[in-house]
Design a protein that fits this description.
Number of domains of chain B: 3
Distance between the termini of chain B: 77 Å
Number of domains of chain A: 2
Largest sheet of chain B: 7 strands, mixed
CATH superfamily of the largest domain in chain B: Thiamin diphosphate (ThDP)-binding fold, Pyr/PP domains
Mean pLDDT of chain B: 90
CATH class of the largest domain in chain B: Alpha Beta
Strand content of chain A: 5-15%
Structural class of chain B: alpha/beta
CATH topology of the largest domain in chain B: Rossmann fold
CATH architecture of the largest domain in chain B: 3-Layer(aba) Sandwich
Number of helices of chain B: 13
Low-confidence stretches of chain A: none
Low-confidence stretches of chain B: 93-100, 106-120
Structural class of chain A: alpha/beta
CATH superfamily of the largest domain in chain A: Thiamin diphosphate (ThDP)-binding fold, Pyr/PP domains
Shape of chain B: elongated
Order of helices and strands of chain A: HEHHEHHEHEHEEEHHEHEHHHH
Oligomer: heterodimer
CATH architecture of the largest domain in chain A: 3-Layer(aba) Sandwich
Chain lengths: 385, 456
């Protein structure tokens, strides 16, 4: 009896390992504060952030890593449907989100849970979102990690890659037309720069100068498509040149450099308008829980990037400044574990969203058609169908 | 109580898999992160990690078992202090109740919709109101100007809307009155400027986005449907998108396939949108003013041929027509003709033809395609017992299909004949004058359908 051939998974061998561009940061014009060892020897001056700010930055990054590890295991054991890893990208989003003011608007992509934490979202509400429970701002309607909360000035992300880049530019433009001082940042990946909306938004931003930071997290891979198949440009930042938008490349695994350039772009936004920041980073994990990166990239490439892991780099910087000790580290790790365990247990015990609630918020006020559907569903559930 | 280890879903689409290998045996101690098993799917082989700490009490599914459904318990884990004798107390896996399918009731004698419907149509214009003659073009312009005066957050954006005053001259005078901050020419990128408008609506403004025609808005459908229409829902009710998308829809004259399509049913299909398609100048003005005040995204379908047509418009400071109400534009007793936009014109002509033959046709102008004013339709059909739908677009999955299904479901016993549909030929629009004419419905085609429902 002939055996069935399983469907091909990926044609060809994994791509030969490409060394991290950070190894040649100066040559490639990638701005840094920290070197690979976490010493302030980059081309940018040490921003000398206050200890409390540095601690908040480091704690958030460690907590994001712990959430990612816990969520991954929950997904792998079937307790959660889906996961989008953020491993390796903690510095890029935590550093930049911290550089924005609390009233500034953030448009999320999908690997920035730290932005939610920085704005005060509770761990339990994050895990409630991951589990699809009631009582989180998005009412169980979005996939895990597709986060947002308007109350925190974080716009819930759109699933279509890059389609929301003009929304951010449009909202920033609205703020400018209204004359308020709000600033905006929008996160997207290297793959999104191939979308027409990226170019439309940049073009518009060059003309109308809305106060916005286009923050591209170039993590090396768009699922299995490497950056050299995404663009033949020397960088993603230089695409800003065509639209007269200020642009630069920064070491996305250097939270101090990310913080410094984002803060600068924010301060310029009122006068100069838009900036494009390319944060050169790397997706250490899977694209999502539905992916298998071993099919298209080599362990050696990942290992080379592990050396640039942003967390040990910032920790060494803190230790050298006398701001962190092994005891602090031990305490922080234990604290993160305990907080996450508590949040997982509490969130998993929360009830699912109420049936009938799915007819809310389709329109600002329900039409007869929505009310009819709701009534029928509730009657069916009540009468056993 | 022992912890059930369930067959994991390694991707959202996975429904079953093979337990390829156990990496632990009964009696082994495991902790969070320890590898316990290998699972194979049609996509990949994955290693499963323990989440909790404990001792493997029992392996329920042996290695090599295929087609193990997701969420099936595959092993039991004993927590600290539990013994093998506790194994039989393990809880069953959580049952996930199947969602009841959304089905229409099979034969609803009682139109449930009517009970939940808006109150009956009230007079939209107070008795004794003076009327003035006005083109649809001027009515649309006046509606925008009045709303822009009323609310400083309302602005107009689109290709050629400012200095050129619109490709169809709908925005005449607006730049002069409101200046370049509120009447904005955009680069030629429908998905781009639509996205910017959506963002401006998120940011607290009330944009009116003009599409030169809705044919070009196909590039922006993702922005309209995925972004504008779904954000209120996806944000858990936190962010609405008050925005109007307006422009010419459907066939004009001799502009062929890519400039002559009717998008009414495309947008009327989508939850989160309101869709209106006025016929005369009074409704164009009153509905556009309503659309601009709506908290939801509104698709406002105009017709190029009607732009220059004059109608009587109430001479009121604030003439507003509510969205979601149809209007009986001609009363009759033998057959109901349901139409919208320019098809109302053809239907009124058909009603004249029919009157000459002794058939009294009632013409209902839907005006709003989403939400549909079902009560007005049902009242009319209850009176005439016959129904003909008319649209210039393709019939498949069209507005007429929706009306026919709803009328049949809610008023089956009122009908003396099957609902008839009249629409455009099921082909891309040809250019040649004779072929174009043959691709569009006209009064005679409507009259023929009406006669058929009357068995004449």
């Amino acid at each position: 009896m002939p055996t069935e051939t399983p469907p091909a998974q990926f044609l060809g061998d994994p791509r030969p390992a490409v060394p991290p561009p950070l190894d040649r940061a100066r040559e490639l014009g990638i701005h840094q504060v920290l070197d690979i060892e976490g010493r302030p020897r980059g081309d940018l001056p040490d921003p000398d952030l206050p200890p409390a700010t540095l601690h908040r930055m480091y704690r958030t990054m460690v907590l994001v890593r712990a959430i990612d590890e816990r969520g991954w295991r929950l997904q792998r054991s079937g307790r959660m449907e889906f996961w989008i890893p953020s491993r390796g990208q903690e510095a890029a989003h935590v550093g930049s989100a911290m550089a924005m003011d609390a009233d500034d608007w953030i448009f999320l992509a999908d690997r920035e849970p730290g932005a939610m934490l920085l704005r005060g979202a509770s761990l339990q509400s994050l895990f409630a979102q991951f589990f699809g429970r009631a009582g989180e701002p998005l009412k169980g309607r979005r996939l895990p990690l597709l986060l947002g909360d308007r109350a925190l000035n974080i716009v819930p992300c759109m699933t279509q890659v890059g389609a929301y880049i003009p929304h951010a530019a449009g909202a920033a433009w609205a703020a400018k037309l209204r004359g308020d001082g709000t600033r905006f940042i929008v996160y997207f990946g290297d793959g999104a720069t191939s979308r027409g909306e990226f170019h439309s938004a940049m073009n518009f931003a060059g003309i109308h100068r809305p106060p916005i930071i286009f923050f591209c997290q170039n993590n090396g891979w768009a699922v299995s498509t490497p950056t050299d198949r995404q663009t033949a440009s020397a960088s993603f930042a230089e695409k800003g040149e065509a639209y007269a938008v200020d642009n630069l490349r920064v070491d996305g695994n250097d939270p101090l450099a990310v913080y410094a350039v984002t803060r600068q772009a924010r301060e310029r936004a009122g006068e100069r308008g838009a900036s494009l920041i390319e944060a050169v980073t790397y997706r250490l994990g899977f694209h999502t829980s539905s992916d298998n990166p071993d099919l298209y990239r080599l362990p050696a490439e990942v290992a080379a990037w592990e050396r640039w892991d942003p967390i040990p780099r910032l920790r060494r910087y803190l230790e050298d400044k006398g701001l962190w000790s092994p005891a602090d580290e031990e305490e922080l790790v234990a604290q993160c574990q305990a907080e996450i365990e508590g949040a997982v247990a509490a969130a998993e015990a929360m009830p699912p969203p109420e049936p009938g609630g799915q007819f809310d918020d389709v329109l600002a006020a329900p039409t007869w058609r929505l009310e009819e559907q709701r009534a029928r569903l509730l009657a069916d559930l009540d009468g056993g169908g | 109580m022992p912890i059930s280890i369930l067959m994991p879903a390694l991707s959202p689409t996975m429904t079953e898999g093979t337990v390829a290998n156990w990496l632990v045996a009964e009696g082994d101690k495991v902790g969070p992160g320890d590898l316990i098993a290998e699972i194979e799917t049609d996509k990949a082989t994955m290693e499963v990690e323990a989440v909790d700490e404990g001792v493997v009490g029992r392996i329920l599914v042996p290695a090599g078992t295929e087609n193990v459904a997701v969420n099936t318990p595959i092993a039991l884990l004993l927590a600290d202090g539990e013994a093998a004798s506790d194994l039989d107390a393990a809880p069953p896996p959580p049952a996930i109740p199947a969602a009841p399918a959304v089905a229409e009731p099979p034969a609803p004698a009682v139109p449930a919709a009517v009970a939940a419907a808006p109150p009956p149509l009230e007079a939209e214009v107070p008795a004794g109101t003076a009327m003035v003659a006005m083109t649809v073009r001027d009515a649309l312009r006046d509606a925008m100007a009045e709303e822009m005066r009323r609310d400083g957050n309302v602005f107009l954006m689109g290709e050629e809307v400012a200095e050129y005053q619109g490709a169809y001259k709908i925005s005449q005078g607006l730049l002069d009155e409101f200046g370049p901050r509120r009447v904005i020419d955009t680069p030629i990128t429908e998905h781009g400027f639509t996205g910017l408008g959506v963002g401006a609506a998120f940011g607290g403004l009330r944009p009116i986005v003009e599409f030169m025609t809705f044919n070009f808005a196909m590039q922006a459908v993702d922005q309209i449907v995925n972004s504008a229409a779904k954000t209120l829902y996806m944000s858990g009710g936190q962010m609405n998108c008050p925005i109007v998308f307006r422009g010419a829809n459907g066939a004009a004259s001799r502009v062929a396939a890519q400039h002559s399509q009717c998008y009414a049913s495309w947008y009327a299909h989508c939850p989160g949108l309101s869709v209106v398609a006025p016929y005369d100048a009074a409704d164009a003005k009153g509905l556009l003013k309503s659309a601009i005040r709506e908290p939801n995204p509104v698709i406002f379908l105009e017709n190029e041929i009607l732009y220059g047509r004059s109608f009587e418009v109430p001479d009121l400071d604030d003439h507003v027509v509510p969205i979601g109400r149809a209007r009986i534009v001609r009363s009759g007793s033998d057959v109901t003709i349901v139409a919208f936009s320019i098809a109302v014109d053809w239907s009124l002509q058909a009603a004249e033809l029919l009157a000459a033959e002794g058939i009294s046709a009632e013409v209902v102008d839907l005006r709003s395609l989403r939400p549909l004013d079902l009560p007005t339709l049902l009242q009319s059909v209850a009176k005439t017992n016959r129904c003909v739908t008319v649209e210039e677009g393709w019939l498949g999955c069209g507005i007429g299909a929706e009306v026919a299904a709803r009328v049949m479901a809610a008023a089956f016993d009122d009908l003396d004949a099957p609902v008839a549909r009249v629409g455009g030929a099921d082909v891309p629009m040809p250019y040649a004058a004779n072929l174009e004419k043959l691709a569009l419905p006209d009064a005679e085609a409507i009259a023929a359908a009406a006669r058929a429902t009357c068995y004449r």
